[in-house]
Structure formats: structure tokens, C-alpha cells
Design brief:
- The chain folds into two domains: 56 residues, no CATH class; 44 residues.
- The protein contains two helices and eight strands, in the order ααββββββββ.
- Strands 3, 4, 5, 6, 7 and 8 form a six-stranded antiparallel beta sheet that branches. A two-stranded antiparallel sheet has the order 1-2.
- It is an alpha+beta fold.
């Protein structure tokens, strides 16, 4: 949390390219209410203070989950027991085992050759 950080921590965040105005941007969102905002005491690095902000959309609407393949920049479509890459160059599927989506590159089942 850049706003609550010490000057040394703020300088470190700036040098490392941290996003520094996230909370101000979140507070300014017109379509959302702030549910709560708090500092987390579990931060392990004093130069990286951590806070959380929870927002609620004022007008709820269903979310859309869009998955991308971790093996390629391709969309994935659900097929029940697996997710399959779609589009040119698609060659991997990712299994769903016991309801758990296995989405690591090492979980991929690849099609080799034609």
C-alpha cells in the first residue's frame, strides 16, 4: 500500500514499478461501493506494506469467466472433463479431475504432429 508506506518503501515501490494509486482509483470508481478497506498485518517485508480493499458493484451483473491457455495465448473452452485450446495452432487440453481444473503448463496434454 503506497499511501501508508514509509518514504523509503515508497521510493522502492516507485523504482520497482509498483502500481501506486490503486486505492485512489478504486475509491473513484462510480459504479462501486467500498465494503471495507484495511491494512494486512501479515506483510512479511516492512518495505512492502499490504492492504486490501473490497468493492461491491452497485448494480450486480453476472460475471464472465474467460480462460486463456497457460501454454499459448489461446482461448480455452470448457468440455466438461477438460478445457481445450481453440484457434489456429491449438494443440493442448487441460484436464478437470474431481472438479479441479488443472491449468498448469505441466498439466497439459499435448497433440504432437498430425
Amino acid at each position: 500500500d503506497h499511501a501508508t508506506a514509509s518514504p523509503d518503501a515508497q521510493a522502492r515501490m516507485a523504482s520497482l514499478g509498483y502500481a501506486r494509486e490503486i486505492f485512489a482509483s478504486a475509491r473513484a470508481l462510480a459504479g462501486f461501493d467500498i465494503v471495507f478497506e484495511r491494512k494486512l498485518n501479515a506483510a512479511t517485508n516492512p518495505l512492502n506494506p499490504t492492504s486490501v480493499i473490497c468493492l461491491r458493484r452497485k448494480t450486480p451483473k453476472p460475471g464472465i469467466v474467460r480462460r486463456k491457455s497457460p501454454a499459448a495465448a489461446l482461448d480455452l473452452i470448457g468440455r466438461g472433463d477438460h478445457f481445450a485450446e481453440t484457434g489456429p495452432g491449438a494443440s493442448a487440453i487441460f484436464p478437470v479431475i474431481g472438479g479441479i481444473e488443472c491449468m498448469r503448463t505441466s498439466d497439459a496434454v499435448l497433440k504432437l504432429g498430425d
